[in-house]
């Protein structure tokens, strides 16, 4: 199945070079792939994985290991935001 994977702000550094311009990457995944497996696959530090959305719906940390991705969905992840 195919899903879109997006990383924002400093997390873009974890994308392959060709995906950094659009901050998005099309992924071919097995049917039972979870949100947590994608986070692990890309080596994203847990402390930087703050806001996780699948098609605009927030996925709390406790649900990420069990949330299976489906064909055509978009997984988007943002780090914590700081500023002043």
From TrEMBL:
Gene3D superfamilies tied to this protein: 3.10.20.30
Any single Pfam family the record assigns to this protein: Ub-Mut7C
SUPFAM superfamilies documented for this protein: MoaD/ThiS
Stored InterPro entries: Beta-grasp_dom_sf, Mopterin_synth/thiamin_S_b, Ub_Mut7C
Domain named Ubiquitin Mut7-C: residues: 3-79
Transmembrane segments: none
Name of the protein: Sulfur transfer protein ThiS
Organism (species): Sulfuritalea hydrogenivorans sk43H
